[in-house]
Amino acid sequence: MQLKFISLLTAWLLLTFVGITPCKAVNIIPYPQSAEMTDVVFNKAKINMIKYVKAKDMPAEAYELHIKKSGIVIKASSDAGRFYALQSLNQLAEEETMYCGVIKDAPRFSWRGFMLDEARHFFGKDEVKQVLDMMARYKLNRFHWHLSDDQGWRVEIKAFPELTKVGGIGCYSDSKAPAKFYTQDEIREIVAYAAERHIEVIPEIDMPGHASAFNRVMPSLKGNDRTVNPGKEETYATLKTIYSELAELFPGRYIHIGGDEVNKNGWDNLPEVKALMEKEGLKSLNEVEEYFCRRLADIITSTGKNVVAWDDLIDSGTSPEGKVMLWWHTEHPEFLGQGADKGFDMVVCPDRPFYLDFVQDPDDKEGHLVWIKAVNYMKEIYEYKIEDNPKVIGVQSNLWSERVITHPRREYMIYPRILALAEKAWSLDSNIDYSAFLKRVEKEYKYLDTMDVHYYDFRNPERHPEPKR
Ligand code: TNX
Q1: Ligand 1 atom nearest residue 310's Cα
Q2: Is 411 in the pocket of ligand 1 (CB under 6 A)?
Q3: 444 a catalytic residue
Q4: What is the pLDDT at residue 25?
Q5: Are 257 and 240 in contact, with CB atoms under 8 Å apart?
Q6: To test ligand 1's pocket by mutation, which of 148, 212, 351, 372 has the most ligand atoms within 8 angstroms of CB?
Q7: Is the terminal CB of the chain with fewer CB neighbours within 10 Å at N or C?
Q8: Domain identity same for 170 and 253
Q9: In which band, very low, low, confident or very high, does the pLDDT at 266 lie, cut at 50, 70 and 90?
Q10: Which residue puts its alpha carbon closest to atom 9 of ligand 1?
Q11: At 198, which CATH number?
């Protein structure tokens, strides 16, 4: 009898004070590496009683979150780790009941990216700040900002004010729309806003293709309607001025030079290209393109920044040192391994299923390649397999904006797929479980409801119908 009482007492003591009970899952997106929660209820009145412990040996973005009856303890080696602990804590605090327990967490990938295309349509700084808030909540840390394309040039360059005054005119749906762009002060404001959220901003000026807006301003440097002239020295001098200014404006480590989808029609008729081929012994227009990319990469390197480019550059002969390539060609799965073998840091963002300009419901009407019924399902993002390879440093989703103009449409394309991306970027494969994830997404919908977000609701798509562009 006495023995039975003692063992019951011990069990009660363990339950109440030590918290050794069956583990509960935590409602956090992205799911943490390990979570050992108890049945002991945490008194939310103590949520601000946070003790920070500097644990020098922990990796920069890692953290431990100890939720105890007496208060919260956060261990991390850096501000970033502390910040991520707070993101997890915020999500837990949104639950009706919070429990005591220990979360030990660190990201799988160092590059957790999201790209926004503001060249096709311009959204403005309030929208960008909302995107950065979203990224912070889900522990994404690389904001790739597509700031130039055929339809518009969106970043002020003091050396060439016409780039925005004239190049900023028009957008994908209206080539005559008044000029829209960011002043350098606005850029600095956004970069600072991102930095507070431990997000690095990577500006992209896309060259030598996707350059019609540039060409409208500098017709003498035109290669054809969509490219610059790779044979003219003045092209390189002008780009050096532009990218150097960009390097001053953006304090981050990276500059993205584009390099995708270069249409070389007519290059062979340009006297400067002919002369270049002869001088450099280039045997084809492909080699001319590669020459251009190598030189542009060298220009970026000379500014002290690391080059980021689309995977179109992996065969350009540029040295892999400090360079990041974004693998986007789904139809060329070999590019990922080839780039990694060459020594580039690779980021996984194949358009299928990672691009968010494709629809996510087969009944949706407006999306990239919707006429061939192309759909990028959240589940495909979530279950996408990425082999461990030290040269594969991350994963990213891109929101191209040809068919995205309005705020609700932006939200509809982003949510909830971005949750799957975030989990792919942060969580370990051993924690990847789609049905458990969907339950967490449903919990996240409650938060998104409070923020009035027009997300796609997979339970009932009628609830938030697909918005027009
Ligand atoms: C390809 S991905 C592009 C973009 C388009 C996108 C549409 C890449 C490097 N280039 O210019 O907007 O497809 O999905």
Answers
A1: 9
A2: no
A3: no
A4: 81
A5: no
A6: 351
A7: N
A8: yes
A9: very high
A10: 260
A11: 3.20.20.80
Nearest alpha carbon to residue 63 among 71, 52, 48: 52
Ligand 1 binding pocket includes 368 (Cβ within 6 Å): yes
Structure tokens belonging to residue 460: 């009932």
Distance 126 CA to ligand 1 centre (A): 24
- Residue 7 inside a domain? The answer is no
Per-residue pLDDT, averaged over 12-36, amounts to 72
pLDDT tens, position by position, 407-457: 999 999 999 999 999 999 999 999 999 999 999 999 999 999 999 999 999
Instruction: Given the residues 61, 64, 118, 149, select the one marked as catalytic.
Output: 149
By residue count, the chain amounts to 469
- 162-169's contacts with Cβ under 8 Å and 24+ in sequence apart are 162/217, 163/213, 163/214, 163/217, 163/242, 166/216, 166/217, 167/213, 167/214, 167/216, 167/217, 168/213
Does 97 share its domain with 144? no
* 1 domain residue, yes or no: no
Find the 399 Cα to ligand 1 centroid distance in Å.
9
Domain that holds residue 327: 111-463
Q: Is 210 a catalytic residue?
A: yes
Structural Rg of the chain based on CA atoms = 25
CATH number for the domain spanning 37: value is: 3.30.379.10
Compute, in angstroms, the gap from residue 400 CA to the centroid of ligand 1. Answer: 7
Ligand 1 atom nearest to 326, measured from its CA: 9
Q: Which residues contact 125 (CB under 8 A, 6 or more apart)?
A: 182, 186, 189, 190
Residues 119 and 210 both lie in one domain: yes
pLDDT at 12 over 90: no
Give the CA distances from residue 185 to residues 124, 189, 213, 301, 341, in Å, rounded to whole numbers and listed in that order: 13, 6, 22, 25, 40
Binding site membership of 383 for ligand 1 (Cβ less than 6 Å) = no
Minimum-distance ligand 1 atom for the alpha carbon of 401: 12
Going by CA atoms, what residue is nearest to atom 5 of ligand 1?
Answer: 400
Domain boundary among 105, 140, 171: 105
Is the whole-model pTM more than 0.70? yes
> Could you give the CA distance from residue 172 to residue 146 in angstroms, rounded to a whole number?
14
Shared domain for 363 and 318, answered yes or no, is yes
- 431 within a domain of the structure (yes/no): yes
- Quote the ligand 1 centre to 116 CA distance (angstroms): 11
Q: With respect to residue 354, please indicate whether it lies within any of the assigned structural domains.
A: yes
Contacts of 28 (CB under 8 A, 6+ apart): 35, 88, 91, 92, 103, 440
Is 42:96 a contact under the CB 8 Å cutoff? no
Tokens representing 304? 């002290």
pLDDT tens profile 50-100: 999 999 999 999 999 999 999 999 999 999 999 999 999 999 999 999 999
Residue 355 CA: which ligand 1 atom is closest?
A: 14
The arithmetic mean of pLDDT across residues 251-274, rounded, is: 98
